[in-house]
Amino acid sequence: MKKILLLISFVGLSLNAQTNVNSKNISKVNYQVDEENVIKTLSYLTSDELEGRDSGSEGIEKASVYLENLLKENGIKPYFKTYRDTLSNYDKTSYNVVGYIEGTDKKLKSEFVIIGAHYDHIGKIAAVNGDDIGNGANDNATGTTAVTEVAKYFAKFKNNKRSVLFVFFSAEEKGLLGSKHLAAKLKEQKMDLYFMFNFEMIGVPMKDKGMDFYLTGFGKSNMATTINEYAGEKLVGYLPIETKYMLFRASDNYPFFTEFNVPAQTVSTFDFENFEFYHQPDDEFELMDTKHMTNVISKTIPVLEQMINAPKKEIKLN
Questions:
Q1: How far is CA 118 from CA 85, 140, 251, in A?
Q2: Beta pairing class for 84-86 and 95-101
């Protein structure tokens, strides 16, 4: 997440045919993301070859190509003429990477959902034990990896009634510039945005919090209640520290909230206690809990599917 510490100093998815029904008669299908796919994407994005994925750098260019190829290989089309959405508000050439799956419902496909994460990080920084690369594993290669797995699912099963944009934002670390650029651009194009769902720092589980994620801007909409009803469990909850440090404004959900005035929120598992290497060279792949990531992504996919396919806009601002 942008400057958090300044505030304090079709691949690999298997479908299980068994269907359960929760208390609100909303069906839930169980399936599991393949951990090997999580490892493959996460390990590449955090490799020294990418030199910390600083916006406008050669390293993030390699990450862009990787994500573009992943979208293409899974049959996900670019939303614009190409997958690259060039930022208009940053002095170095930088790109959001934007994929698009059109909705299957004739009426609902004119409504859009954005599922995103920032894929940039801070590049080279002050060396620690000879390592000067801020690989940004937790921040935010983990969130980027989650979006790739969600995208693969919808590309494979083609069951989204609403249209979906899968967005990998650049220049988040420079002041949410990628999301600010895209939110303004889509608003000017009069997009009918239903909600925006953002992944941020999900590489390490929380301890004794009674939930898998916390949701930023918890009380601003009924998104948390809806997610948990669809999940049939407490998948997301409230963490007081997110209000204390205004985390709702600290990631790429926020520009979509301000531009569109719709639910636009972030899920995270970074709770200021479970990971100490924010913006440091030790934010490495080896410290990420890929089993945890695989589990929470697997739980989130069916919830997002139901959110996207609801016959009317059920998620609303409070």
A1: 13, 6, 8
A2: antiparallel
Tokens of 31: 């399936």
Q: What is the pLDDT of residue 31?
A: 75
User: What pLDDT is attached to residue 15?
Assistant: 33
Residues of the chain with pLDDT under 70: 1-29
Q: 39: which residues sit within 8 A by CB, 6+ positions away?
A: 290
- Please name the residue that has the structure tokens 């929470």: 296
Burial label, 144 (beta-carbon count in 10 A; 0-12, 13-18, 19+): buried
* pLDDT value at residue 14: 35
Q: pLDDT value at position 219?
A: 97
The type of residue at 193 is L
CB 208 within 8 A of CB 269: no
In this prediction, residue 29 carries a pLDDT of 59
pLDDT of residue 25: 38
pLDDT in tens, 266-303: 999 999 999 999 999 999 999 999 999 999 999 999 99
φ/ψ (deg, to 5) at 62:
-65, -40
DSSP the chain: -TTGGGG----SEEEEEEEEE-TTS-EEEEEEE-HHHHHHHHHHHTSGGGTT-BTTSHHHHHHHHHHHHHHHHTTPEESSSSSEEE-SS-SS--EEEEEEE--SSTTGGGEEEEEEEE--B--EEEEETTEEE---IIIIIHHHHHHHHHHHHHHHH---SSEEEEEEES-STTTSHHHHHHHHHHHHTT-EEEEEEEE---SS--SSSSSSEEETTGGGBSHHHHHHHHHTS--EE--HHHHHTTGGGSSTTHHHHHHH-S-EEEEE---SSS---TTSTT--GGG--HHHHHHHHHHHHHHHHHHHH-SS----B-
Cβ distance 204 to 289 under 8 Å? yes
Count the neighbouring beta carbons within 10 Å of the beta carbon of residue 174: 21
pTM: 0.92
